[in-house]
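haha ok so turns out i had the wrong file open the whole time. this is the CORRECT one, sorry everyone. sequence first:
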Amino acid sequence: MALAAQQLKGDVMSTDAITVDNVKYNYGEIQAVKGITFTVKEGEIFGFLGPNGAGKSTTIKMLTGQLYPKNGKITVLGLDITKKSGKVQAQIGVCFERTNLYEQMSAIENLKLFANLYGVKKFDANELLTRVDLIGREKDRVSSFSKGMKQRLMVARALVNKPKILFLDEPTEGLDPTSANNIRNEILKERERGATVFLTTHDMLEADKLSDRVAFINSGEIVALDTPHNLKQKYGKRVIKAQIKTEVGKLKNREIIMDNSNTANDVHTLFDKEKVVTIHSEEASLEDIFIQITGRGLAG
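then structure:
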């Protein structure tokens, strides 16, 4: 609760796009979300990370008005989600991992239909399709698209109404490296536009690169919430890893912990007494930290 209270205080100079206060949700006897509390600032990319079954999907469904919390309160864009879900949904964009496109319609028809549903009068479908590298396929039926192409179209569809908050669930899943990098760049552009991004992903490197802050959820509880840098400083360790060649020509690994009183001497001794082949520094990843805190990996 101390962590939760600290996060609720937030930065008094910033405005909260999302406020979650002691929210719980259960499916019968199973408590999926156990009194979580956090805030997301306007214009922030917020990584929400956890393994399958941790409560991520339930939380997102509550934030987007698909489910209502059993206890606690959720405020999105200053509106109580349980009372103003329609007004909230008109101002957000959602891209879930499971595609729900109209397969017998073309890409551009899917975007125009979505625009009509949202009451968007003016938008440039071709510009959106260009942003997700689908221009040239705009008149093709979605049923002919690969999984990656459908995922990119889902991202474009989420941007039709220029959302104030963008909810992205595994937005680069199934994409080739170039397409995935393009989508990451579009996420950064959305933040530059002023949008808030709520990101869930199993790709911890992606979360590390994109997120201003990350929250770890495990078994329905927030177990850590901070910037990637601060989490690494608090829980991780930095090391120097070297590969040396022995007198008989074999390669062996050496590891020196950084940031302690003996680091400089240990490095000097390494180069003085060993034949160093390669050397590099390494810090703990968010995946390492998540495992350290929870005892399980994101795929667990």
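DSSP finds eleven helices and 13 strands in the chain.
again sry for the mixup
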